[in-house]
Amino acid sequence: MLRLKTPSSPHTHAMTSVSITMLKVIVALIPGIVASTYYFGWGILINIFLAGATALISEAAVLRLRHYAIAPALLDGSALVTALLLALAVPPIAPWWISVLGSLFAIVISKQLYGGLGYNPFNPAMAGYAFLLISFPQPMTAWLLPETLSGVHLNFMEALHVTFFQAWPTELRVDAVSMATPLDLLKTQLGVHKTISEIRFGTSIIGDFGGKGIEWIGNWYLLGGLWLLYMRVIAWQIPLAMLATLFALATLFSLYDPDVYSWPMFHIFSGGTILCAFFIATDPVTAATTPKGRLIYGAGIGALIFIIRTWGGYPDAVAFAVLLMNIAAPTIDYYTQPRVYGHGK
Amino acid sequence: MARRLYNFHGGLSLDDHKYEPTRLSAAPSHIPPRLYLPLQQHIGSAAAPVVGVGEHVLKGQLIAHATDYISASVHASSSGIVEAIAEFPLPHPSGLQGTCIVIRTDGLDRWSVRDHLPRTDYRTRDPHELRQMIRDAGIVGMGGAGFPTAVKLNPGPNVKIDTLILNGAECEPYITCDDLLMRERPEEIVEGMLIMQHILQADTCIIAIESNKQEAYRCMLAATQAAQNAALEVVMIPTIYPTGGEKQLIQALTGREVPAGGLPAKIGIVMQNVATAAAVYRAVVLGEPLIARYVTLAGGVPHACNLEVLLGTPVRYLIEEMHGVRATVDKIIMGGPMMGFALPLDDVPIVKTSNAILISTVADRPLPARVEASACIRCGECTRVCPAQLLPQQLYWYARAREFERVQQYHLFDCIECGCCDYVCPSHIPLVQYYRYAKTEISAQIRDKQKAEAARQRHETRLQRLERQKLERAQRHETRKHLVENNADNSTTGGAGNDTKKAAILAAVERSKIKRATSEGAQKNVENPPSDVQQKISEVDARCAKKCPEPRDDSAN
User: Fold this and answer.
1) pLDDT digits (tens, 9 = 90+) for A283-298
2) What ipTM was reported for this prediction?
3) Which of A85, A100, B134, B472 sits CB 3.0–4.6 Å from A125 for a disulfide?
4) Which of B163-167, B472-476, B482-486 has the lowest mean pLDDT?
5) Which residues of B touch A76 (CB under 8 A)?
6) B446 phi and psi angles, rounded to 5 deg
């Protein structure tokens, strides 16, 4: 008698997979990566390589220790996305071990030790970033002056030398090309009782709506983010709620006292705001998943970014805001279950 | 007049694969050498055979009658001799066997006598009489679940049905049997609908057709206009899977939601499949019982097509008749790719609810093989597409962890198993399989609990009975003792003692009366428990009712 296969329905499937999803995220990051490289030079790409290689190697090592198949996990692309996001948050002139340690922490501690992809409660890239920021504040806050401002371009070999030996070309001095980030600058200057307009127009590194020149990087991330929205890789709720909340709070306070509270566009286009809105806060594993829950989750991150930036100890607050809301995600999901069909209006 | 349409949550847009099987009109399939007619092709009790082995039967002759209110009769699909009444494999994913009446056909296809009403006569008939005709014809919902149609057409004396909906959505890919029926027999469908409208006294009748069936829409529109009845409406609805699901179609057409655990009749709606309507027409006007149906054949046959198949025809016979190479077949789906089930073998018959046979062969795989599942990344796509607005990923999580209380809190039993979540899952998790597993486990737990409860009650009743009997025995014993003592007194004191004796007897009777009364009172206590106990019982009942799975939608396809 003919014996046939009897799989459970449905017997057909959409052309989707985790790898395809992650690949789309990587593609969407490309404009931002190119823009960052344009402003900050080879250091960005060196960091990406270091973080990526560390992520893949350490993930493979842990999977081997856990007796799991290595290839499917590496091919799903999630480790690479984590490494990319971390590398883009690290200063381009940071020493090599910053990217390596951060990536190692992200993959081993905050992803694989919790059970691997799908089981990690915290965004691995942001956990890695927070670990670096707390442990090594000095190299984590020394940013490179955009090449468009300094007029200095390091070639690939020079950038490698900087990353691996902290050795700058002889004619350059470190403090001539490094700077604090605009957010950092604003924070320290406000600390010495300068007004926003004094800071804004008294320095050459702040432009129209963010760091001069680098404010445009946000637009390139935005482009990739909108493409992800269009491709339905991410849902609109988180980015919209996050940006709207941040914008609304910033507007409110800057109207109240424009001398002390920076203008809203500065908040949106400085630091990691846009990258966070479309690529970090939208990490599905660690975010809320109900439609209403995503709105609350996004709004929470927006509010926390504003609060920490304005009254907290860190100039950029993306990592901490995301990690704090990660903790809240399961609770948000529990209380925002949608009304099921047929269960009353 | 354009009807306002509503959206239901989620859904998918799928490649419909409907073109090829609709190029040819539906040809009648040949009479197979043997017909296997299961006694149960419907929801409810199995029918009971009324013919014996060796008996000659004619086409359309009753061979098994409905045994219950929710049951359906079975008729011979062709003339021949009853060869066996025995267990044979049924079309079921587990290879389940069930009693079938096997007819060795004689090829003459001779009809039995057909009692029928003249075409226009039904309007003067009592709904009850028409329902009986539908019931006698063995008609069940032909869209999928096979609920007896006569029962569905009897919503009860105090239920007003305002809308009768004919489901011609046919939203699953590949399936085109209703599409072709609407093209080829639109008048039968409209007549059948009018009969059902008369039975239900419905104000509005809507025929809903998905926008990917333009030809069927035109045919139905023409037939409806010819009927010249202002209550009839043909409505084109957007092609979104699963718009053919009963609840989704009601929502799309009326904006109303069927309350959880309830039937559409609760909100004044009855839905029937278009094929069921045609069968009703044939039963009432032509006197033909349900013995054949349109079936789509697609996949591993040279030409995808629709056939009018005699019920009981083995799937294997259809594959061979349509020149499919049986040896290369590796998977057969009965139904559509989203909700159909895979047959473990091809020696199973076409039954009243079989709408399509999808054949996958080694050379021609219309459907992709299942990819190994990876971890859930909580992307929420499943939530976005779920037409019941559930949180499929939470259901999966709790079903996998066997947290059955939790999975019910997340409304597992509102899942219609449409497969949308499963279809879009980037991790390829077999979500529907998890839900079926959880539903089966929970149902089994409830059954076990009910069994235990029944056993407990039996035990308690028995203890009470024994106690009562013991008391009564003691009572009788005491009365007799008194009588004997009194008699003894009587004999010593003479005739004067007669009065005391009578008094003693009276006293004993009184005592026994009181005892009986108290023991009866104790029993009444069980029948009419105090209000707090009563409340607890009704709470438990309500919980049980909520947990019990509702029957599958009759007209889902």
Assistant:
1) 999 999 999 999 999 9
2) 0.88
3) A85
4) B482-486
5) 374
6) -65, -45
